[in-house]
Amino acid sequence: MSELARLTIHEANQKIKSGTISVTELTQAVLNKIDQLDPRLGCYITVCREQALCRAREIDNQIAKGSPVKTLTGIPIAPKDIYLTRGIRTTCASNILRDFVPTYNATVIDRLLEQGAILIGKTNLDEFAMGSSTENSCFHCTKNPWDLSRVPGGSSGGSAAAVSAHLCIASTGTDTGGSIRQPAAHCSVVGLKPTYGRVSRYGTVAYASSLDQMGPITKDVEDAAIMLNTIAGKDSKDSTSIDRPVPDYTLSLGRGIQGLKIGIPREFFDSAINADVRTTVETAMRQLEALGAKIIEITLPHTKYVVATYYIIAPAEASANLARYDGVRFGLRKKSADLHDMYTQTKSHGFGAEVQRRILAGTYVLSSGYYDAYYISAQKARTLIRNDYLAAFDTVDIIAGPVAPTTAFKLGEMTNDPLKMYLSDILTLAVNLSGLPAMSIPCGFGDHNLPVGLQLIGKPFDEETLIRTAHAYEQSTEWHRISPELG
Ligand code: GLN
User: Fold this and answer.
1) Percentages helix, strand, coil for the chain, rounded to the nearest 5?
2) 80 catalytic residue (yes or no)
3) Is residue 377 part of a domain?
4) Is 441 a residue whose pLDDT tops 80?
5) Which residue among 80, 94, 126, 176 is best mutated to probe the pocket of ligand 1, counting the most ligand atoms within 8 A of its Cβ?
6) Could you tell me which of 384, 405, 196 has the C-alpha nearest to residue 303?
7) Which residues of 428-465 are buried (b: 16+ CB within 10 A; e: fewer)?
8) Cβ of residue 425 lying under 6 Å from some atom of ligand 1
9) Is 381 domain-assigned?
10) Quick one: how far is CA 27 from the chain centroid?
């Protein structure tokens, strides 16, 4: 029965529709996988066993009475523990929110539930989504299912590992600088970061508001299209969500890429990229070419400023967003004789080292005297970076390259060197600085048999071409069918 946990959304949906399996059986199969493997992997912070089974039985009863089966009816989904879930603890992997139980759902969660999904649990992450390895969690590290001595990537590492090892059917992550795409690449699953404004951010704890975007992590491209259909669209509760019609993304599947122009940025293949990643991605490019795409070399000249620009803007916004955790309004409060000491105690006990580092850096670049030199310069660089991409899109339909310079690194390898960790984000950050949609899809294995991701970047609001390209590639390969061996 635990084989049922291996199903994709679209496969499970067929079986539920035809009555071959019940929702309770599917939910139980996923819970069995969690029992069997999560003690080793650490994908979850919270497992909603009773609520999930209870909802599964309720849905089975409704189906028996003739209720229609929607695209996500009875599908166990595991959101990253940064999405507010009514009545279910939402921690952001931070001591400051360790016992925080929200009174309302994020819009993404409401939309998934309306479509029939079951919340099976909340997955592990880097504290407040700050990190690239899921080692900055106040609970535990998540392990990469392909090699338990390695990181799953971050910050949505719990989600990517859970999808890869079949501890859920699908998941939702958040991507501020790569946190959907990079763990998806390291765990060999599909991660989709939509255009900024395509999906509501309401009820998802803010890290850097001008960069954050919510999206699916799934077993294949079809599932990503199904999930995006559900969560995309204007939300009156998020003024930055855009009022544009939401196409049916599943119509982009199976359309092929004959004649599509794919740009390959020279800067994405420089010496900082490991040889195994480079050769694997180059093979994927040849495959895209064989499918009828035209490969065109392009240049994104401001790529060298991307890491510095992001690591000024993101901490600046984070320092403002995290000011609300003051011991008064949310979460942890350390008792103290006076107000100032209470703030200090709460923050120093509540926030981990990386979060404190970001708050300090963010406050510094926003302080008078440094604001012009750092923050304003970074905003100008951001415009130049975005302009590089928009100019490239005058000649190409899609930009392609690796997701990360290396495959998954060893647990603990970079924890003492934050700058080295920041540099590993070089290939994902520009997409967020430019508000573009992008995907990571499995494209093979590098040294030590570790997964490599192919990154596809699209024009603003052109998730359709992204999904079309990703699907054409995926269907011509076997990578998405290979799962880690975990016994
Ligand atoms: N690794 C990047 C950071 O630490 C991106 C994180 C994210 O996308 N949430 O900020």
Assistant:
1) 45, 15, 40
2) yes
3) no
4) yes
5) 176
6) 384
7) bbbbbbbbbbbbbbbbbbbeeebbbbbbbbbbbbbbbb
8) yes
9) no
10) 23
Q: pLDDT for 317-376, tens place per residue?
A: 999 999 999 888 888 999 999 999 999 999 999 999 999 999 999 999 999 999 999 999
Block residue for tokens 């699953």: 189
Given this model, what pLDDT does residue 2 score? 61
Distance of CA 71 from the midpoint of ligand 1 (Å)? 31
Has residue 33 been placed in a domain? Answer: yes
Query: Domain range spanning residue 444?
Result: 2-300+388-481
> Which residue spans within 176-212 are E strands per DSSP?
190-193
Per DSSP bridges, beta strands 261-265 and 76-79 are: unpaired
CB 178 less than 6 A from any atom of ligand 1? yes
**Whether residue 133 lies in the annotated active site:** no
Query: What separation, in Å, do the N-terminal and C-terminal C-alpha atoms of the chain show?
Result: 15
* pLDDT tens digits, one per residue of 143-179: 999 999 999 999 999 999 999 999 999 999 999 999 9
We report the CATH number of the domain holding residue 150 as 3.90.1300.10
Q: How far apart are CA 134 and CA 146, in angstroms?
A: 15
Q: Is the dihedral of CA 413, 417, 421, 423 positive or negative?
A: negative
- Report the SS3 class of residue 47: strand
Q: Sheet with 451-458: list strands edge to edge.
A: 118-119, 76-79, 170-175, 213-218, 190-193, 438-445, 451-458, 398-402, 261-265, 294-298
Indicate if the pLDDT at residue 1 is higher than 70: no
Q: How many domains does the chain have?
A: 1
DSSP β-ladder status, 170-175 and 76-79: parallel
155 is annotated as an active-site residue:
yes
**211 domain residue, yes or no:** yes
Separation of alpha carbons 195 and 435, rounded Å:
6
Q: What is the number of alpha carbons within 13 Å of residue 270 lying toward its C-beta?
A: 12
